[in-house]
Amino acid sequence: MEVGREVSQRDPAATVRPVVSATPAQLASVAVGRPVRGEFTYLVPEALAGNLAPGQRVLVPFGRGMALGFYLGPANAPVEGGVRLKPIQRVLEDSPSLPKDLIALLRFTAEHYRYPLGEVIRGALPPGLSTAVDEKEARPDVQFFVEALVTEVPPQLARAPAQAAVLQYLLAVGGRAPLDEVTHAIPGARETLKKLATRKFVKWVEVTLQPGVREGLVQNRPDRLTPEQALAVKELQGAVDAGGFQPYLLHGVTGSGKTEVYLRAVEHTLARGLGSLVLVPEIALTPQLVGRFRSRFGGDVAVLHSGLKDRERLFHWQALRKGTVKIAVGVRSAVFAPVEHLGLIVVDEEHDPSFKQDEKLRYQARDLAVVRGKQASAVVVLGSATPSLETLQNTRSGRYKLIELKNRVDDRPMPTINLVDLRVERPREGQVTEEAPILSPQMLQAMEETVAKGQQVILFLNRRGHSTILLCEVCGLSLKCQDCDVCMTHHRSQNRVVCHYCGVAFPVPDSCRECTGPLLKLGIGTERVEAEVLERMPHARVARLDRDSATSAEKLTELLASFARREIDVLVGTQMVAKGHDFPGVTLVCVVMADTSLAIPDFRAAERTFHLLTQVAGRAGRGKDPGRVLVQTYNPDAEPVRRMLAHDFDGFSKQELEWRKALAYPPFARMAAVRLEGEHPEQTAGVARFLGNLVGRHMPPASAGVRLLGPALAPIARIRGKTRWQLLLKAPTHAALAPLLARLEAALADVPNGVKVVIDVDPGAML
């Protein structure tokens, strides 16, 4: 713990007193909301003695001004003789914003991920509590509902397709829904609903609610669980009843009904008066799962995501903190939600990379969920069809219990998977051309047959844009971003080339900027695939789902809703199409190029390729009709591709774990990346060598198993005009890494201002 002794006698902001004889009850440990490490000791004024509670926000003197602080409890360490302390100036709230169990998690987070505790706490709090102002209360709110007055679309709406579509959507979700959900799903629906109300086909209902709490459409529970689901629910309910920390891996194939298991477990937890926390990768990409929670539990669910207004985020926090709402569903930051009497934590799609934050506080929400479960003596369920190797190894070592769902609901078969070997289907030409077709005859025929049956197709390619390389025919140079060490991507719809790292964009050049030679547009992205489908299948209704087409949450929701209503025959998309969607009309999934992610210089490349291919394949055959998957590849012998074709997760994971163990990579080691970037290449390289030498001087004995890789230029050596270097540290345990990380952190004070250094513990990516 650091001591708040930066105060001098001349500081007018606080009264300074000697505290040599102060007792622990008179000393307070405070985390200051500034980018400084450690906790600071302050005096507790007599007026506040006995009235402070851990977790309260306080106002404290800091430096030459005042700062927001968080009271964490009495200071344990005795104060050194002669040190003079400042008193806490004011308490900003009557009841603590932070529950005690959350304080423990935030302390762990700051220590493990090497980040200032005060900044960790500020990031966890909603607006309104993260600044030095007195406590605010959220005000009541009003919500409008729309209710259908008919049970089917009347014939007189045949000439009003917009009205018919909105009414059909309302009937499809049960006949009653919040207005904002309908307008979110169908842009422009508000005016259409007014017309329907005038014609007495729907009515509007006004309900007064607390802000942020939204009644959902009550949805019936399935009458029957599969035998595997029933056993899973029984196991989890028993664990909740028993109390205590128990982590589980719920390993269920795609379409096996994991969500219903979550719902039953949460339902049981709620019946016992306990709270539940459910983490999902992305709210916008998992609307069906979130919708089922809101439908099942109504106003007892707080849905936490970045799209909430500040007032709503504040209300959710207060409602959870007071226990008036007992279920929180949200993205990774919801791991810090103040759920009272926490009994159950669920992490859906636990393998998803989006649970790792890659800027500022670089935490892994899945790992923190397990830590929080242990601290709160709660049951933790990590669910996935393709578990991360870290979670799988924890299960095999006995740290986690395993629950398996090996079969799909209603005895639906897994999709059949067939390979299209592009070495045979599309042999390399003697001359490079940009007109070569992307879709093989076999894939195109399967798509034609599927659409002819009135069924739907998903085309998957995890690259945006039209062409990923612009290559000069004369000198052979590719068009690269001038600020980044990457090729520009051609976006034909915008007639621009774009850097996907720094965002710089400009019109497509007419010629090579080095020799004025003509440019070939090579490589494929979703835009080019969409164009080819439109050309080859002009009768089909085609749409594209990627970050370029879904530029807002509203557009994303409408596109997904339109596909769910079967208004789209073929959906071309990136990994956004693989995120847990349930579209019963999809019977064919086509993987345009299975090789794109295998060449990435990352030890997790094979694992992520297998996960992504398996997840997107799992979108096929989730309705009454069986599914089929076609996979195009130039590398059919690649381990992830070969194992995915056979639905062989066990074989893939066994092989990959053996490789990781032999090379001492996670989950058999812990890692930390030290990343540097600077505008001056020589200066940045010098700092990298300085930090490498520092680690070398303080390296523990070889028997400790700590290894340093680097320093070396990062795989992408330049982004936004800044040179990038990195050092990688590996060790058998995090405890073996901690002393080195502490020394590195202390050395950062000597790093020149022109070089930025970050420490990324348990890095998610190596680029």
From TrEMBL:
Keywords: ATP-binding, DNA replication, DNA-binding, Helicase, Hydrolase, Isomerase, Metal-binding, Nucleotide-binding, Primosome, Zinc. Residues 507-660 form the Helicase C-terminal domain. Binds 2 zinc ions per subunit. Pfam families: DEAD, Helicase_C, PriA_3primeBD, PriA_C, Zn_ribbon_PriA. Residues 239-405 form the Helicase ATP-binding domain. CDD domains: DEXHc_priA (cd17929), SF2_C_priA (cd18804). HAMAP family: PriA. Initiates the restart of stalled replication forks, which reloads the replicative helicase on sites other than the origin of replication. Recognizes and binds to abandoned replication forks and remodels them to uncover a helicase loading site. Promotes assembly of the primosome at these replication forks. This is Replication restart protein PriA. It comes from Corallococcus coralloides. The lineage of its organism: Bacteria, Pseudomonadati, Myxococcota, Myxococcia, Myxococcales.
